[in-house]
Write a structure and sequence with these properties.
The complex is a heterodimer of chains A (about 300) and B (about 300). Chain A has about 300 residues and is an all-alpha fold. Chain A has helices spanning about 1-25, 30-55, 60-75, 85-105, 110-130, 155-180, 180-190, 195-200, 205-230, 240-255, 260-280, 285-295, and strands spanning about 140, 230-235. Classes of the chains: A mainly alpha (about 300), B mainly alpha (about 300).
């Protein structure tokens, strides 16, 4: 376990030092890029809870990015800039939406679950498009970022960077603690053998639903962060390719591992950034790369780390 | 309310439903037989539309363009199956979803590189352009009637092939027990390739027929793909009959909702409220329908037997 802890600790140190390094190299763009990556890492970490540990293949996780983002945007639109209120509403609304979607979709399995989560996210996407008051298809600008009354100021890129870093590590810790708890044990048991889990007296449905709601709420926080990061909210937050990307981060990094989703978010978004800087048609390269990674890179980046168990 | 308008929208709904059916039939066959979730099915629809446009421009003949779209998609479908998807049959659904998602990115960008990102609009030959008078005062485009006719004909043909021919027998046998079929000496890999190509060609047919009605552009396949998922969830996975009934229901509900929900709401709540809520509700209608069906019949209206 020691080399593994060293590598991961090194990654965290690198993230801590990144703003100073970027300032030294006079490349403030990288603070922005890494902050965006870490926001998506939060979304991926939340998806990992249900996809990696629970085996629920949700193809609609971008919905909660949208709900969280719109919660911040709509409150700001009516002049309510209090950050605590905005973020609490973002998390609460995402949890509520996840509860409704989950109550219907968690009853189903396999391919049905994939299609249903995708379809509900598409429904929310169209709802966003048809909200003319809030900019419809074009979305709306977030003129004032969430205000945290003197405690910290999101307009300062470095403060915002460290806030996102702390939240990302906090979410990873929370998911880690959750899956190690009794609750997490039931979820993992239901993934490996649902019939036996029932036989020893656990009905997986409430556990799956609770995990689905927690994941949605956490992703809603990522949505609130993303709205502040881009200062812009649009239905494109909920685009179905977004859901696919978040899913890819989890797989690329390594399912059902604590550092995996964050590693995957870094890998995918950095590759995207590199390819996009090289050619406008980067997706024609990324697509086959993704296919190859699914075919031949089963255990993900976390599986490459020393000390990774046989099951990743 | 104007009854000829209602009738016209009903036909539009039927036309949309028929196109959804062409897509859903291929997708549900591939899922039922190979147990493969193919998100790239929408890309094949797009490829069909683009190849038909390109073929028409090269040869100047609409019929040649249609042939080019249909046969071209068949070839592209078989190539995709042999190169990428064949290795995915034994994998779980998650891998299939991700790999075919990668294929979508590839196809969308490839099409944008070849033909640009702007939407293409195509013109129909003179013999498809006119209108027919259905009854006094109600005129309907010939082309949409042709689409309905072709779709229904394909539906009948599909039923005949699956239920009455040797190929159909093998398809049904492969769906219920592939190991046994292979043990009886059937080349199951070839059968899979044929079925996939067949499904791809149907998607291409839907795409090339959609070209003159909707815009031909990168990403056009995914918009319809997600609606096709709704169709399949409502109809029941793996069942062609379910795909047909689901497609017609979704097509009609979606079209009627978009046409009449706003004026109807205007009668019930205030016109300004209807102005805001009407379009939002209309675009969410089929998903709400799906949720309702799932709440009462989680396995869909016509679940496939034996699965």
């Amino acid at each position: 376990m020691r080399p593994r802890a060293l590598i991961l600790g090194g990654c965290v140190l690198l993230l801590l030092a990144a703003p100073a390094l970027a300032a030294l190299a006079e490349q403030p763009y990288y603070i922005d890029l890494i902050r965006r990556v870490m926001i998506f890492a939060i979304a991926a970490v939340s998806l990992n809870l249900i996809l990696g540990y629970g085996g629920l293949v949700s193809f609609g996780h971008a919905a909660y990015l949208g709900v969280g983002g719109y919660a911040v945007g709509i409150l700001a639109f009516y002049g309510m800039h209090n950050g605590w209120l905005q973020w609490a509403v973002a998390i609460g609304a995402s949890a509520l939406v996840a509860l409704v979607i989950g109550a219907i979709s968690v009853r189903t399995r396999g391919i049905y679950f994939i299609m249903i989560t995708l379809a509900f996210t598409q429904m929310l996407y169209y709802l966003g498009v048809s909200l003319d008051v809030y900019g419809g298809d074009d979305g709306m600008r977030l003129k004032v970022k969430s205000q945290f009354a003197g405690l910290f100021d999101l307009n300062d890129p470095v403060t915002f960077y460290y806030l996102v870093l702390v939240l990302m590590l906090g979410c990873m810790y929370l998911v880690h603690r959750l899956v190690e708890s009794r609750f997490g044990m039931v979820i993992r048991a239901a993934k490996s053998n649902e019939a036996r889990t029932r036989a020893i007296g656990f009905s997986p449905y409430p556990y799956h639903l609770a995990a689905f709601v927690i994941a949605g709420a956490m992703c809603g926080l990522a949505g609130a962060l993303l709205a502040n990061h881009t200062a812009y909210i649009a239905p494109a937050y909920m685009d179905w390719t977004r859901s696919g990307e978040i899913m890819f981060m989890v797989i690329l990094g390594g399912m059902a591992t604590t550092p995996g989703p964050a590693l995957g978010a870094f890998a995918l978004l950095m590759i995207e950034d590199l390819l996009a800087g090289w050619t406008a048609h980067w997706q024609v390269i990324l697509g086959p790369l993704l296919v190859l990674s699914v075919l031949f890179f089963k255990r993900g980046l976390a599986g490459l780390l020393p000390g990774a168990g046989k099951n990743g | 309310m104007n009854w000829s308008l209602v009738f016209e929208q009903l036909l539009n709904g039927l036309q949309f439903g028929v196109m959804l059916f062409l897509m859903a039939a291929g997708l549900t066959l591939v899922f039922g037989i190979m147990n493969l979730v193919n998100l790239a099915h929408g890309s094949l629809y797009m490829v069909g539309a683009y190849l038909a446009v390109a073929g028409t421009q090269w040869t100047g003949s609409y019929v040649a363009g249609v042939l080019c779209g249909f046969l071209g998609t068949l070839v592209v479908g078989i190539a995709v199956e042999v190169v990428a998807l064949r290795t995915l049959y034994q994998r779980d659904h998650l891998d299939q979803v991700l790999a075919t998602f990668g294929l979508i990115l590839f196809f969308n960008e490839l099409v944008a590189m070849l033909w640009g990102r702007a939407a293409l609009y195509t013109s129909l030959p003179a013999w498809l352009q006119g209108h027919v008078e259905l009854f006094s005062g109600s005129r309907y485009p010939v082309y949409r009637l042709v689409v309905i006719g072709v779709g229904l004909a394909v539906g009948v043909l599909l039923w005949y092939v699956v239920a009455k021919t040797r190929l159909g027998m093998l398809i049904r046998a492969g769906a219920s027990n592939r190991t046994m079929v292979a043990a009886l000496g059937v080349n199951i890999r070839l059968l899979y390739t044929v079925v996939f190509g067949f499904g791809a060609a149907l998607a291409g047919l839907a795409g090339l027929m959609a070209g003159p009605i909707y815009a031909v552009q990168p990403g056009m396949g995914e918009l319809i793909l997600i609606q096709v998922f709704v169709v399949i969830v409502i109809g029941g996975i793996g069942s062609i009959r379910g795909a047909f009934v689901g497609a017609i229901i979704v097509g009609i509900v979606d079209t009627m909702g978009r046409a009449f929900l706003k004026p109807l709401l205007g009668h019930i709540i205030s016109p300004t409220g209807a102005e805001a809520a009407g379009p939002a509700l209309a675009s969410m209608l089929i998903y709400l329908l799906m949720a309702t069906v799932l709440a009462f019949r989680p396995q869909g209206l016509f679940p496939a037997k034996g699965s």
